[in-house]
Amino acid sequence: MSSEASIYNRPSVLDCFRSSGNSWFQKRNLKQMLESSKDSAKLDAMKRIVGMIAKGKNASELFPAVVKNVASKNIEIKKLVYVYLMRYAEEQQDLALLSISTFQRALKDPNQLIRASALRVLSSIRVPIIVPIMMLAIKEASSDLSPYVRKNAAHAIQKLYSLDPEQKEMLIEVIEKLLKDRSTLVAGSVVMAFEEVCPDRIDLIHKNYRKLCNLLVDVEEWGQVVIIHMLTRYARTQFVSPWKDDEVVEEYSENNFYESDEEQKEKDRKVKNIYTMDPDHRLLLRNTKPLLQSRNAAVVMAVAQLYWHLAPKSEASIVSKSLVRLLHSNREVQYIVLQNIATMSIQRKGMFEPYLKSFYVRSTDPTMIKTLKLEILTNLANEANISTLLREFQTYVKSQDKQFAAATIQAIGRCATNITEVTDTCLNGLVCLLSNRDEIVVAESVVVIKKLLQTQPAHHGEIIKHMAKLLDNITVPVARASILWLIGEYCERVPKIAPDVLRKTAKSFTTEDDLVKLQILNLGAKLYLTNSKQTKLLTQYVLNLGKYDQSYDIRDRTRFIRQLIVPNEKSGALSKYAKKIFLAQKPAPLLESPFKDRDHFQLGTLSHTLNSRATGYLELSNWPEVAPDPSVRNVDVAESTKEWTGILGMTKKEKPTEKFYSESEEEEDESTNTSSSSRCLESNLHLHCLENCIFRTKTHELLHRMSGKGLAAHYHFSRQPGIFGDHMVSVQVTVTNTTDQKIENIHIKEKKLPPGMRVHEFNPIECLEPAESITVSMGIDFCDSTQMASFQLCTKDDHFNVNIQPPVGELLLPVTMSEKDFKKESLSDLNILYKVIRENCTWL
Amino acid sequence: MIHSLFLINASGDIFLEKHWKSVVSRSVCDYFFEAQERASEAENVPPVIPTPHHYLLSVYRHKIFFVAVIQSEVPPLFVIEFLHRVVDTFQDYFGVCSEVMIKDNVVVVYEVLEEMLDNGFPLATESNILKELIKPPTILRTVVNTITGSTNVGDQLPTGQLSVVPWRRTGVKYTNNEAYFDVIEEIDAIIDKSGSTITAEIQGVIDACVKLTGMPDLTLSFMNPRLLDDVSFHPCVRFKRWESERILSFIPPDGNFRLLSYHVSAQNLVAIPVYVKHNISFRDSSSLGRFEITVGPKQTMGKTVEGVMVTSQMPKGVLNMTLTPSQGTHIFDPVTKLLSWDVGKINPQKLPSLKGSMTLQAGTSKPDENPTINLQFKIQQLAISGLKVNRLDMYGEKYKPFKGIKYMTKAGKFQVRT
């Protein structure tokens, strides 16, 4: 492989390496190559230039020569020129303008890939003058027939916004339009644009909420992450908290079957006002759950945080298994996931207790992973598992990674304070560690023991004595300081040893660390107050040493202590209280997890990882007291088939459409003229489950451009509920002007209709520019027949006879019903069903 | 989202940079170098580094740091997962992902990166789609291109992008239709001093290599699907079908892909296929220590354990080791203190052992912990969890494909504490 690849473009790379010495010659050479007539020379030059860009070398001088090739026929040259343009256009704005017209032309290209890449490059050129052109291009692309182009339009929105925030209002309009898009390709990108441009316009989401929930499984993985994060924020503003009551009674709880329970519930409701989850809230939880099985760690994490922030507490634990699975992934993924688990495990221990052993540390783990695992183990410790954990910790303490061993000792300390049963065991264990050979371990133990003794100073004279002995050997300043502080604080418990310790340290005072010196002074002061007979002289000696110390702090402290404890004529009122001041009861330090305060950040975010607000972090709001009006999410016109179910007079329980992709597909139309992928799962006959489906519809010709003197018209059935009334079938007519003059006043005239048939005309089109096309919708009541509707399509000076004949399928209405209902209806008596439809259905 | 990408090699040179929005100066990497210095080892460099104006998210693979520059809030896993996908794509394109390879193919790398992100948001990450947009370099194509002047850049939108099966390209043709599935299980275990298991888990994957013509629809069923406790799928697997029938039903991508990864529940007792007998002792008085380990098979279901490799990080006090293995070769690196012993196959009749003495630094006290022993091994033709594929069927195409299934068990993170 290696040899193959190197043949491929070795020359360019080699030149890049050599370039430093003779760059001037090289650039002149490149210019010549770019201006040559041969594509191969141009391509070679472009490859070298891209190589320079990749290495971070400046190639901006070549701009004029490169930009000439923007219209090259060779697609690879063109692509490389695009790469170059995106890199340097910002620096060479005037010259960059030369390329704009090429993109404008490419935006109209019949090939969707070319349209899309033209839009991509045009919007990536950060030149403020072309903002209006970009705006226009985005608007046009947002109604492009290819979903791929529309996806690129959504990306372009963000680019334009960062270039010129003034365009916000106009861009929001485009976002609003694209949010309505049903293509899974567009969904992720437009939500991303929404998050960047107008994350506070939550009202734009309402109508699309259910659609987004239902599309979610089919969206590409990156889009899923963005949508899930957005929906988490949305849900926190729209639904009431499911956490108030532990027992969650759901709307479709099975208890409904039992009448007695029903009554019981009625009573309960009056008393407690039991929480019922909004069905939309449930829809979100249900539709995200299968994504826990995604191969993409980011998606799994996104779902996990959604459940953490939105699900009833009893349900949140389903995410733990998947999170633990992620621990077998790369180091970086482990790091982020462990951080999030650490935060979770503080609040809800139960979630991860069954997986305790998955957090056991391996000697090959990097230190940062080890410490995180240790953190989680400590959070999970309880009476039941503490003995196993302590045994495990014993191994860690012996680890060769001393930083980790020190962290383990801290962890043992935390376990000891949290679980009172084992405090003594831990303390004994830590005391044993005091005889460890490694100084860091001993020092850490001393510090932790000090904290532990402080929390329960009851009768630990023995330990203090033991530690006093250690003072001869330990050299780590923090540990020495801790021991001295302990002896001073509890000097009354060790009356014999304390003065002796002071004697010893006074001897070594000058060689001690500052930290230790301060504690020696403290010890002296405390002893002076409690046992002045024995220590008066010693203390004064120490104070004298301190007086001439090099450090300001120590001289300060010395002066302060002397004034406070040694009575003289100048000493103020305070010296009376010296004993109270020095030997006051001090509050014990709390041994807390460093992850304690992270929970106010949304899990899975960068801010949570850093434990500080990152730029652009969007706060997760608190649950509202009262849920805002849920009807805002109802989709009234065109979109949902949900309302139609009422037509049949049947109640329907909404079923989630969980699927990774559709299993049955209607005939695939190669032309991508309409949006959306067809999705229809378990098609139990036509009647079942056409929810959320739009098929690739077939376009029929209404008027050919030859017979229409340049005016062409096509129509298709939009398969949406008629907006012109219940009996109207909606028909989308696209009129195109293929002449090179304007066509004015296009309208419908002289309808020749069979009896009963009615047509709702479209509004006359004032004017149609050359090469422009407009889609209008009209409604036709075919009276349930397949007879032709004939009429005249008129322009200002001409008229053409046209007719529309509907296929039977276009007259049928999709109806959603559960399988049970369907069987009941169809198997018992198909006729009745037919009758029901006849009577109630809108168009049949 | 992702603003820029820098590729940094082991010696700290930035050898590639790519910007998706306005240009970020490469001096931003200084913060990264600082963190790298502090971390001493590459593995300990924090994956997320905040700087005054940017955030640096990095992954470390194949001795290269892939550093992404972020300007505002974004789920960190999103970026990390994407970076790993970039590395996978390079590997897929060039066979190996190394500095030399990337430098040699810098143009293709650039074109691929351009397609993968638009304005910092992932655009095309499926390898099947990417390969249609930018064709991987091969000798044949290079020759053809130079003669005919055609390019390796596709000019049509890959059909996958718009279809409901974006991972598969259309018009796939093979003369030999074949589908291979490898069931590979890894045992992660910690064994304590006395030989009892502290924790053991099995992680499995099914990697597939499918070369089938047209649009085949495959189903794969297991004899004992209940074993699988937690699973994650390639997007092609129909989740509903799995939920209801425990059958994997999918239209496969073309070529190599990971169909499924699974976890066998911790409740099931995990069979540990090897044991290690060890006797490592340091004496306080003398500067010599004893070292002796023996590896033997335990529950191997009659299969041979091969590819055995023993590594151990010795304490700092060990100066040298004089060892004699009964088979295989061993190396002790006196600088890193890493002992590795390549054992090879285990013959149950004659167990491999490594015996000898250690020279300790004079004057220092004995280390308080014995070194842990890391084990690697392979067992062919065995899935240690007992998972068995029942059958593989193909629908939707007429031909008869050649099907193959292979099992293998490997050591994952297998540690013996001594």
Report the portion of residues of chain A in β strands: 5-15%
**Distinct helical segment count of chain A:** 35
**Which parts of chain A are unreliable, with pLDDT below 50 for 5 consecutive residues or more?**
1-21, 246-262, 267-272, 638-695, 835-844
Q: What distance separates the N and C termini of chain B?
A: 47 Å
Subcellular location (chain A): Endomembrane system
Membrane topology (chain A): Peripheral membrane protein
Region (Disordered) (chain A): 655-678
Domain AP-3 complex subunit beta C-terminal (chain A): 666-787
Structure explained in plain terms:
The complex is a heterodimer of chains A (844) and B (418). The radius of gyration of chain A is 39 Å and the shape is elongated. Chain A is α+β, with helices and mostly antiparallel strands and 844 residues long. Chain A is 50% helix and 7% strand. The relative contact order of chain B is 0.12. The mean pLDDT of chain B is 86. Chains A and B meet through α1, α3, α5, α8 and α10 of A and β2, β4, α2, α3 and α4 of B. Chain A: Its main location: membrane.
Task: Offer a quick outline of the entry.
Chain A is of the alpha+beta class and 844 residues long.
Considering the chains and any ligands shown, give keywords for the structure.
heterodimer, A: 844 residues, alpha+beta, five-stranded antiparallel beta sheet, disordered N terminus, B: 418 residues, Beta-Lactamase, Immunoglobulin-like, 3 domains, nine-stranded mixed beta sheet, 23 strands, globular, Adaptor related protein complex 3 subunit beta 1 (chain A), AP3B_C (chain A)
